[in-house]
Amino acid sequence: MAGQIISRGKDTWLVRLFLGRDANGKRNYLNKTVHGNKKAAQKWLTKALRDKDLGVTIEPAQGTLNEFLDKWLKEAAKGKVRRKTYASYEYNLGRYIRPVLGLRPFAKIGPMEIQSLYNGLLESGLSARTIEYTNMMLKQAFRQAINWRLLIYNPCDGVRLPRKVRKEMQVFDADQSRRFLAACKSEKHGLLLEVAVTTGLRPSEYLALKWSDLDIGRQTASVNRSLDFLPGGGWEFNETKKPRSRRTIKLHSNIAHTLQEHKTRQDEEKRMAGENWTNFDLVFANEHGGPVDRHNLANRDFRRILANASLPQIRLYDLRHTFATLALAAGVPVKVVSEQLGHASAALTLDIYSHVLPHMQDEAVAKVEALLMGKAEPKHVKTGEQHTPGTLRLS
Questions:
Q1: Which of 73, 245, 375, 390 falls 20 to 30 Å from 90 in CA-CA distance?
Q2: Which stretches within the chain are classed as H helix?
Q3: Helix extents (H) in 16-147
């Protein structure tokens, strides 16, 4: 039954409109008291049913978008997401959404207004990725409004997002990687960067490594947490990006040996610092025992090493891409690389590093042909031919 009209006395009617079932299967209704004759109650029900079919608000909620976003951030988002994520919600909504739509009645905001806003942001130079992220937040907020029975449809559902352009991945080839590793030897945070390029860990993961995570004898490291730097200062440990990101990885034998030497030096630094040292058990720590600052590492130490070694200025995160690309090019099975990276699936790894696939397929076909036709098996893939500074072509 889509709706009901129930008498509640002389010239008073309770009109019930069926809104659907919740996640538990419970039926939800909108109840409206109408004063007048039954014809007036029927008129209201007919209009409400028509509005419901058209996807417009039946009983417009009060308040501006700014007021609703304040309520959503406080009562729905704050206890659900990390502090870093919450801060990014506040920042993006405050910079891109509130200045344009904040004073509008939020129940009257439609897809065309949101589409116009996104088109304007794109024209102003904002990236498609940032617009997509901003839309994700706004869509979550409107979805909560539906759950709170303030709206019956999500205006973000009718919006077309700009197409994201995938940029060419910047990585080191094998020769550049060797030069990079050699340049790291004499640097303060060189070992940290050696770990980055030889393990494929995310910066938030290798900065969060503790000595208790390492098994030097077995040459392994357990990834159990991430380190997040908060807007405005401060940091905190958090769970890994996704459950699959918790994993144990294998270290290069020379890295494991160097880590042992690093532990001896750090113990001496700790002894010299005395009470000024706060023991977080971090493998890579600053002079007080706290975490190495990611911003300074990326923009000062890392860039200096690249310049001294005459290497392309890639991003710190591109060391992870370098590891994955070289591993795939060397013939390491995709599933193994995926597990080392902490990806949700091998399909995701292949999607990200699809530029490696053509040669992998060529080599696979050649090997099968050699097996079936009795030909000599082709020599292993040659890796690392440079065709554009900072990018890798496999030949």
A1: 245
A2: 38-54, 65-72, 83-92, 98-101, 111-123, 128-147, 174-184, 190-199, 203-206, 253-273, 294-296, 302-308, 318-329, 334-341, 346-352, 357-373
A3: 38-54, 65-72, 83-92, 98-101, 111-123, 128-147
What is the rounded distance in angstroms from the CA atom of residue 253 to the CA atom of residue 259?
10
Q: What is the DSSP letter of 58?
A: S
394 contacts: CB under 8 Å, gap ≥ 6: 329, 356, 358, 359, 381, 382, 383, 384, 385
Question: Which structure tokens are listed for 52?
Answer: 């419901």
- With CA atoms as reference, report the closest residue to 280 among 268, 272, 292: 292
For residue 6, the number of C-alpha atoms closer than 13 Å in the C-beta half-sphere is 10
Tell me, rounded to whole angstroms, the distance of Cα 380 from its chain centroid: 35
Pairwise CA distance, residues 273 & 286, whole Å: 11
Neighbours of 34 (CB within 10 A): 19
Calpha distance 139→154 (Å, rounded)? 7
- Residue 97's contacts (CB-CB under 8 Å, 6 or more residues apart) are 65, 69, 117, 134, 138
Cα(322)–Cα(313) distance, rounded to whole angstroms? 13
The two three-digit tokens of residue 362, written as one number: 């060529």
DSSP 3-state percent helix, strand, coil across the chain (nearest 5): 50, 15, 35
**157, two tokens:** 């559902």
Torsion region of 4: left, alpha or beta (phi above 0 gives left; psi -120 to 50 gives alpha):
beta
